[in-house]
Here is the input.
Amino acid sequence: MIELDIPRPKYTYDDKWSDNRGQSERYYHISDWDPMPSVTTVLDMISKPPLKAWFQKISLKKLEEIALATPWPEKPQRNENKNNKLEDPNVYDRRIDRIWKRTVIGALKDARQEPIRLRNTAADHGTRAHQAIHYVGNGGSVEDLEEEVVGTALAYQEWIRQANIKILHQEIMVWHPSYNYAGTIDAVGVTHDNKLVVVDWKTGSGIYSESALQVSAYAAALSQITSQPVDECWVVRIPKQSPDDPKVLEQKQVADWEHTFQSGFLPALYLWQTYHQPIWA
Here is the structure.
């Protein structure tokens, strides 16, 4: 059986706003090393077409809901001035335009915010689901969990049974001393045929290609700091449905994680580094 000795230096992490990229970035602070970007921060450099399509779909759906549910503002009467004369038609038309524009702009604003709201809700659930998996994986009882994550915990237990894997470590911070990035691995385990596996949990609606880059980056860092070759990288989708749902236990293995790391993650890292260096003369 593989025995894995993982270094455990003191570390912290924080989120900082990047003016170059117009978004928040996560950095790990490990002992005396310079701050290192997280794996997910690096991968934010990559365009994600499925996510863009989802944003558009949700926004349009919300706009349709608002249009069907919100009554159109009634057309007001023309005002009378102090001489009991009706307001100028052009002034009246501009007033009507302002009323209708406020309605349309408000609907568009709500529609744009809807996918962000849903994404944040899903992220909150994902955090709680990961915590539930970690708790149960360390011997905790499903009965102690909040109801909304019980399904996730049961699905995790079913996956452990089906995958025939022994989990060695969970929630392990790793870093790559040569490429200067860091991240937290969801789980490291050993299969029945003694293969070392890096596992990343997903609690969303699917497994996407960038997940292969993410787990490959973790594997490269783990191998670097332990001198232990990683055999396989898995991404496992464990959403909140009950474990008898056939869609629950979706698992994908990276075909060649070292190639994926070299040809996928490192170019993203180089691009991230370029955005954080002086570009213009």
In short: The radius of gyration is 25 Å. The beta strands are 11-18, 23-30, 36-37, 165-176, 181-191, 196-202, 232-237, 250-253. The mean pLDDT is 86.
